[in-house]
């Protein structure tokens, strides 16, 4: 069964394998299959579920809410996010203004079929809204009982410091950040993780398998597999491009004997690698079919010994992206309406 870890400097625990529905629910996967996959996640011991109001322009939240209907709410940890455009994408349907936050939390709760979310996350940093306004609104959301904790996604070390200070001044807890992190994308290690450790913030990481590249199914010099994320022009193909160079794919193939030596599959190795970082509380995984989860959840509790972790680092040396300046490129400098 899936193990649980504390999130940030709090008494709140989440499943270290967290189910996420970006690019799948109400998009790549029919609703019936999506609901079956969520039920499989529950059967396997996953209790934490991550979504966002902008996934499939709010529809993904509705699918997740339907899938979780009838479950004991107290036994679940539900996370959602606010920032990206939703609805008709008008001038106030975007960002971290008080108006957008307070309207968005109400919409998310209705779609998810719950009175509260466990963690409400700022999906990016909003350069066009004063940070004080954003955290005053978050504090009101928490005091109204609509969220228990506040998190962020893809914030820089400096933004986390400023946000943490404001959260503390308003009497609420900023306990998490949700960045991209994998053995191939390590940009948070230089600044974000040290700042987070100091502040009592931990990471809920997305794309621990580098958009599936670390599964080993993409081969150097070969066409990408039909039906894979690399062929999905609706979103997946854009994100995976950076990892499809032959030198990267050749390096990934060097991970196979390391995985075999550790008694793991390639996907399990990728997830175990990120979970070996003590500042990581959970790795978000998605699935288009229930059976896919049976493999990935086995990474929970699979302690990667130092020699195996060092071997992964050596195999990917020269192709893994580590530049901490990349963390400053994640949030748009202006809203995209």
Net shape: globular
Mean pLDDT, nearest integer? Answer: 93
Query: What is the count of helical runs?
Result: 12
CATH superfamily: NADP-dependent oxidoreductase domain
Low-confidence stretches: none
| Total number of strands | 10
SSE string: EEEHEHEHEHEHEHEHHHHEHH
Radius of gyration: 19 Å
Give the structural class: alpha/beta
CATH top level is Alpha Beta
Q: State the helical fraction.
A: 25-40%
User: Termini distance?
Assistant: 43 Å
In what range is the share of β-strand residues? Answer: 5-15%
Structural domain tally? 1
CATH architecture: Alpha-Beta Barrel
Biggest sheet features: 8 strands, parallel, barrel
CATH topology: TIM Barrel
* Major sheet: arrangement of strands: 3-4-5-6-7-8-9-10
Pfam families: Aldo_ket_red
Domain NADP-dependent oxidoreductase: 17-315
Protein name: Aryl-alcohol dehydrogenase-like predicted oxidoreductase
InterPro entries: K_chnl_volt-dep_bsu_KCNAB-rel, NAD(P)_OxRdtase_dom_sf, NADP_OxRdtase_dom
